What we know:
Blueprint: E1 2-6, H1 15-27, E2 32-37, H2 39-46, E3 55-59, H3 70-76, H4 81-91, E4 96-99, H5 103-114, E5 124-125, E6 128-129, E7 137-140, H6 150-166, E8 174-179, H7 189-200, E9 204-210, E10 222-224, H8 227-252, H9 256-275, E11 283-287, E12 292-296, H10 302-317, H11 320-330
Parallel strand pairs: 1-2, 1-4, 2-3, 4-12, 7-10, 8-9, 8-10
Antiparallel strand pairs: 5-11, 6-7, 11-12
Amino acid sequence: MKIAIDAMGGDHAPHCxxxxxxxxxxxxxxxxxxxxxxxxxxxxxxxxxxxxxxxSVHHASETIDSEDxxxxxxxxxxxxxxxxxxxxxxxxxxxxxxxxxxxGALMTTGLLVVGRMEGIERPALAPMIPTLDERGVxxxxxxxxxxxxALHLAQFGLMGSLYRQKVQGIAKxxxxxxxxxxxxxxxxxxxxEAFPLLQEMPIHFIGNVEARDIxxxxxxxxxxxxxxxxxxxxxxLEGTAGSMFTLLKEQFSQTWRSKIGAALLMPQLRGxxxxxxxxxxxxxxxLGLRSLVMKSHGSSDGNAIKNAxxxxxxxxxxxxxxxxxxEITRK
Length: 331
């Protein structure tokens, strides 16, 4: 299994990608990790380190930045690390790729370079939303497509269900449709049209799910929505979690009694923060492409990149892309 990492992608690149790649290559000897990026920046980070034999560097002279317009950047920067990694998938010199770079550019690379899976109209970004029961909810689409059709949502449900089966070992994932009420007739034209299509899919569709019930984890394992609503949901949850910890910090620092209380509760607070930390989940797959493409958070550190490699390795072992393609062909 060969996994290409966009070494120049992310807020802390290339340091975080090199650190994560070194840790992953040392732990899993059955994979080969290829760091794709500017060799003049990568080599100094490897100097003096024990570099495993299953890690190599593939030079790419250009970088796609966060402010770059995705389509133009992918078309013009042919030697950008992200584009080169995508081309390696297309040519078969890598089996999967990971990037913490520009999300729009990664989506464009997936469509224009890697290629869309036959039978899938729109790939979907599928990150994990942390839940109180620690199972998490795989939500898709959370930002790859701002406008979706009912058929796209039905395909999202199928792909998400297969991901949770193949990668996370849930035998019968519960698939829910994000809506403003739980009754079958609720929602806008998109959700009303998608509801019966999801019922026809070979999945365990449990109906509509309201946003307030998502983080309990007791309602569904896969949440289906269009990219516009999904991205708003994701950013709202991230903002709420950040604000909650800010408020707790303010309250606990007011008096000496509250400071003592904070010290006593610190292990529990750290555990709560870990539950809500994206770094623990590694990366989100872009489902619906011909090869496996994983998107890490832009602020990923070395541990997040290592976790992304772990997820990618499991997905490759369980032939996720082939399984999705097989089910779509049946439909």
